[in-house]
Amino acid sequence: MPEVTVREMTLGEAVREALAEEMRRDPRVCILGEDVAEAGTPFKVLSGLVQEFGKTRVIDTPISEAGFTGIAVGAAMTGLRPVVDIMFGDFITLTMDQMVNQAAKVHYMSGGAWKVPMVMRATLGAGRRSGAQHSQSLHAWFSHIPGLKVVLPSTPYDAKGLMKTAIRDDNPVIFFEDKMMFTFKGPVPTEEYTIPFGVADIKREGDDITIVATSSMVQVALGAASLLEGIGISAEVIDPRTTWPLDEKTLIESAKKTSRAIVVDEGYERYGVTAEIASVIATGAFYDLDAPVKRIGAMHVPIPFSSPLEDATIPSEHTVFEAARAMCKRS
Amino acid sequence: MPEVTVREMTLGEAVREALAEEMRRDPRVCILGEDVAEAGTPFKVLSGLVQEFGKTRVIDTPISEAGFTGIAVGAAMTGLRPVVDIMFGDFITLTMDQMVNQAAKVHYMSGGAWKVPMVMRATLGAGRRSGAQHSQSLHAWFSHIPGLKVVLPSTPYDAKGLMKTAIRDDNPVIFFEDKMMFTFKGPVPTEEYTIPFGVADIKREGDDITIVATSSMVQVALGAASLLEGIGISAEVIDPRTTWPLDEKTLIESAKKTSRAIVVDEGYERYGVTAEIASVIATGAFYDLDAPVKRIGAMHVPIPFSSPLEDATIPSEHTVFEAARAMCKRS
Amino acid sequence: MTTVTNQSKAHSGLGTEQLLSMYRQMVTIRLFEEQVNELYTRALMPGLAHLYIGEEAVAVGICAALHRDDYITSTHRGHGHCLAKGAAPDRMFAELLGKEAGYCRGKGGSMHIADPTSGNLGANAIVGGSMGIAAGAAFSAKNLGTKRVAVCFFGEGALGQGLLYEVMNLARLWDLPVIYVCENNLYNEYTHFSETTAGDILARPAAFGIPAESVDGQDVRAVYATARRLVDAARSGKGPAFLLCNTYRYRGHHVGDVNREYYRPKQEEQRWMTERDPIKLFGDWLIGQNLANKAQFDEILLQVKSEIEAAVEFGIKAAYPGTDQVEENIYA
Amino acid sequence: MTTVTNQSKAHSGLGTEQLLSMYRQMVTIRLFEEQVNELYTRALMPGLAHLYIGEEAVAVGICAALHRDDYITSTHRGHGHCLAKGAAPDRMFAELLGKEAGYCRGKGGSMHIADPTSGNLGANAIVGGSMGIAAGAAFSAKNLGTKRVAVCFFGEGALGQGLLYEVMNLARLWDLPVIYVCENNLYNEYTHFSETTAGDILARPAAFGIPAESVDGQDVRAVYATARRLVDAARSGKGPAFLLCNTYRYRGHHVGDVNREYYRPKQEEQRWMTERDPIKLFGDWLIGQNLANKAQFDEILLQVKSEIEAAVEFGIKAAYPGTDQVEENIYA
Ligand SMILES: Cc1ncc(C[n+]2csc(CCOP(=O)(O)OP(=O)(O)O)c2C)c(N)n1
Ligand SMILES: Cc1ncc(C[n+]2csc(CCOP(=O)(O)OP(=O)(O)O)c2C)c(N)n1
Ligand SMILES: [Mg+2]
Ligand SMILES: [Mg+2]
Q: Residue A232's CB: how many other CB atoms inside 10 A?
């Protein structure tokens, strides 16, 4: 086996590298969105791409989320592989018809005749003091819809490998990046790799309790796991990486092994991602669980601006730690 | 107590009667939507209202779901109590920004300064051979959003009482009517009544298994319960009536009593309403359940047009019956 | 920017064969739709259908100006577009009846017929839902240098959807070869368009810098001639255009919409049917020009009739998809 | 329908007191925003803020034409609108800092300030998000007969949102007393509007039958005069209007946008600041007309400065809401 070179890079850089590599590999890949070209997005994730690939492949759009998403659907059907950029995930509200009634259904409704190989990049995550319309994590909506795939990377490594898979996938894929994690660093191999969808990653092994966490919440879970280690509780942290397809087996097996599970996700808790995953585990590990599956999502409130209030709504290391401690003591 | 007169009427008539009564009671109530006036909607639910209340209160709009929903939000903030009509629930995709980023958050974001007393009526339900864009049940999306309330009537009685409550509520309420049930008949008292939100209704008492069902699925559950009775299984059928607020207590208590629960809802099963309710029950009745909570939702496919295919995607009496039988045999 | 086409000219270099083929297509659509209505009346038709009868000249005139590999997007009232672009009646009936032999294996139905071999990106049951898709197909055509053109058919009701204005702006900025074809049949379901449409329709695309014209949608030659000019311009890199076709649907909004007096007078329907029928107008002209005679028309009618009958038969006899197919084609 | 206002006239019957009060408001907005920038630089400001510096004449000119109980909706760049409509700087700073004494109890922040007592329906962080809300307020005004008018402020970037065209159509059909005020400051974030805006801006509302005008947004008297005419017309039942105000933001898209050379030249900024500053232009005119003198301006500056300083102080000292308040106000 060849030696693998590994560099540290940020999640933002990893996403950019994935896009650049795929754009080099496949001339059909192009990017559409607001301020994606010279500005490289407000988060600077796309900086430099327009210089390499030019303005016909990295394309600034008007503030028309529905419009350019619709164009991406049509372009994907007819030979391109567009990546659309939705600056704040909150704005997916404007694209729901194009994504859900069109992109998600075209392949099925046409009996397989047409395909829609497109990627929507969007952000999620609170904590940036940006208020209720710039802080939501709305990935549960898309996860609900047959025909779509939903990706939630939590490390630079995952972000790169999953983005490459997303671009090569022949279906509409929504790729949610936590905007607070763009500067989060981690190792990324120089060599080319992709990560398959539907394969959960065990971010930390443990025996006493399973913590399933997505996106931004993976680091929170890992932090909680360290704290738990300090009091002698061994937590296993699992990242599903894609909410659809969902790797039920890995989640269930871990819960069977540890007999306790917590699910942490930054979306609103009610009718959110934690509900599905908790329910899958509660069913799959029914005869092995020592306690109810605990769900920890964002509080059921529009995300407040004021710092202390906002912080109170987001799951924290501490919340997860306390929940785990209570569950492990209990049995 | 005065004698209560009861008439049979259809669900569609019950909705109309509720609207008419509230419009008589409160001049601020008005209706906006496509073909709501002379046509009384394609489902004829609103027939006759324009004759009584005139064209300034029952208002035909262009095909601009986002636009007239936005107008309703502003009108609700400034002294009216609009009811907007979304012909097919699939079209709520076009209103997500106005409902979720605006209507749901205005009260909170303004620190309580503004209120948005509006109702959105929308339909749900498949089985009408209308294809993937006219058959969805997307109520899980709104149920996920703090600031909104979501109502799912399953009988004419409930439809009338809940609609009156919805109109009097000072928050944005989404009221989903199953389009296959507009002609479904049931008793409705002549006397005025309202039904509070967040109070589940036990549609049938039973001891062996709890079937939680929403909207269209309540009749399916009752049908299954009859079949189950035939083989000696006593099923309790509970209708939460509102997914938010959710009457967790009644659901959990029933599951504790019967020790088995099935949740039936016509939305896509994955990341849908069944996930939340199953998870609530699995947690709340953890120490009393004899079997995992069973979820039965729409199949994870865009709803197909072809009759045999479409039928296969919708939960049926038979599916529920079989699931219940298997669960009761098991223990 | 806003001009009205002189309808009377437009012979437009079409040969007799092409003219007769257009006539035949219009007859095909008419008879196809009558059969759909028949199927509905006989309770053989699942769901609903929106008939194109009366509007045949629009689809036929536009599609005659397109190449087979040019793209179209269509609407809930889409049978005419599909047929005019080249779909076969038999597989269409099969689709309408939910059969596996249909264009979408029965999964789409009347409102979702799609056919890659004739460039049909699909009918759409969301009013205005395909406006971005059509622009996207034009975006591909431009970026891949295929010289294809995309046509987006939509009813005047779709003028109410904001998406149209978003994509017209984009189509102009990027000079996309897309033609927005608005079929104004005067009604959004049961509401007259004047109650839902403020200002001047043609001024809307014009405001975005898009050349906009209107044409008599009952005159297939005028539709063709105008479309031809706009399509050629788009193909040669001049960007988008907008064409307003004034037309009328003879029947109800859908097959079940039978009592229509409350929203439109019978006389209005009568007037359009007798005075402005696109097949009759075209037929009269062809005869007047000595390009065809009554016997030829009778012959065409006979042929089309038997073709349509065979197609219905095919659809009725075709098998339903097995329920094992329900979970196929969710993901590619 | 499309006219350009002669800017030089417009004394418009304003008394000296009103003129000076408008001058003072513009200074207030300028100093308020400079303090916001200061707070950000001192790392006291949570999140971001979008400064209105350079555009003061628009908010002040428009709001001077409104009654206190008329409605406005505002944008992410909304501090100027809030102040001009009558909000107090102290409660605004408190809100910007997330304090309980703020207009929204700290829950809204810079992009969501709302205030029923001054008719402010709220700033909005969704570009174009309030276009329907403003029309809805006008709908109420019309239906309840209150004679109120609603103004929807938005940046030229919001012309990209389809919602605008949906609600302009509705506003015209229903003759709603709503004025759409487009603040064209030339940039959508980091992209010049010419790259995102096809055709002619004023032709867009005109296409829906809405009277549309443009005005020099740096000339507060011209803005006021035009707004006054449009507002009066709306109030008297003539329905909607559209006003394009040509203006410029001096600073970055938001407080953190410091290196701007890659999207706009320094000289451009310099030119606007030195040649087209709305406060200076208005001040010069007031002096030229002998309506004010330099000493008065110095006095105003001093007073506003101390008012703003006290307001900042108030905001900084104010208490955060208790975390028990996080679950209040979700439902009414
Ligand atoms: C977004 C959306 N809103 C509403 C409908 C319901 N609907 C179906 S057809 C129609 C009227 C369409 O009118 P027009 O666009 O003029 O087309 P026509 O039926 O006249 O051909 C309506 C309102 C829909 N399908 N999609
Ligand atoms: C729907 C939506 N898309 C994108 C954004 C991100 N965004 C915030 S401000 C802005 C530019 C707005 O430009 P303009 O409307 O001209 O207002 P200006 O900032 O110039 O005042 C963008 C793209 C947003 N807030 N909402
Ligand atoms: Mg029409
Ligand atoms: Mg701007």
A: 8
Task: Provide the domain limits for residue D218.
Answer: 2-257+264-315
What stretches in chain D show pLDDT beneath 50?
1-10
Q: Are C51 and C37 in contact (CB under 8 A)?
A: yes
The minimal CB distance from D163 to the residues B66, B78, B170 is found for B66
Residue A14 lies in a domain: yes
**What single letter denotes the amino acid at residue B179?**
K
Per-residue confidence at A4, pLDDT binned at 50, 70, 90?
Answer: confident
The predicted pLDDT at position D87 comes to 98
Q: Write phi, then psi, for A155 (nearest 5 degrees).
A: -140, 160
Q: Are residues B294 and B253 in the same domain?
A: yes
Verify that A266 and A154 share a domain, yes or no.
Answer: no
Active site residue A107: no
- The answer, yes or no, to whether any atom of ligand 2 lies below 6 A from the CB of D55, is no
Inside any domain, residue C320: no
The reported pLDDT for the residue numbered B329 is: 85
**Ligand 1 in contact with C127 (CB < 6 A)?**
yes
Last residue of a domain, one of A162, A189, A216: A189
Query: Same domain for B109 and B206?
Result: no
End-to-end C-alpha distance for chain D, whole angstroms? 44
Count of domains in chain D? 1
CA of C95 to the centre of ligand 3 (A): 24
| Within a domain: B225 | yes
Choose among C47, C124, C128: nearest Cβ to B129: C47
Domain count, chain A: 2
> Residues with beta carbon < 5 A to ion ligand 4?
D 155-157, 185, 187
Confirm or reject: Cβ of D176 under 6 Å from ligand 2.
no
CA–CA distance, D249 with D50 (Å, rounded to integer): 10
Domain at A286, CATH number: 3.40.50.920
D46-105 pLDDT per residue, tens: 999 999 999 999 999 999 999 999 999 999 999 999 999 999 999 999 999 999 999 999
**How far is the centre of ligand 2, averaged over its atoms, from the C-alpha of D76 (Å)?**
8
Dihedral sign (CA A37, A40, A46, A47): positive
- From D81, D50, D62, select the one nearest D244 (Cα to Cα): D62
Which of D40, D182, D191 would you mutate first to test chain A, the one with the most A CBs within 10 A? D191
Share of chain C above pLDDT 90, in %: 96
Domain assignment of residue A194, yes or no: no
For residue C47, the 8-state DSSP code is S
What tokens does B156 get? 């004419």
Chain segment B228-255, per-residue pLDDT in tens: 999 999 999 999 999 999 999 999 999 9
As a residue count, chain D comes to: 332
Task: Decide: C263 and C191 in contact? Cβ < 8 Å.
Answer: yes
CATH number for the domain harbouring residue C199: 3.40.50.970
Q: pTM value? A: 0.98
Distance from CA of B150 to the nearest CA of D (A): 13
Asked whether C252 lines ligand 1 (CB < 6 A), one says: no
D328 touches chain B (CB under 8 A): yes
Instruction: Print the domain residue range for B129.
Output: 8-189
Does the residue D79 lie in any domain? yes
* Whether residue A157 sits in one domain with residue A62: yes
Q: What is the C-alpha to C-alpha distance for residues B163 and D13, in angstroms, rounded to an integer? A: 52
Same domain, yes or no, for A72 and A118?
yes
Distance from the alpha carbon of residue C226 to the mean position of ligand 2, in angstroms: 39
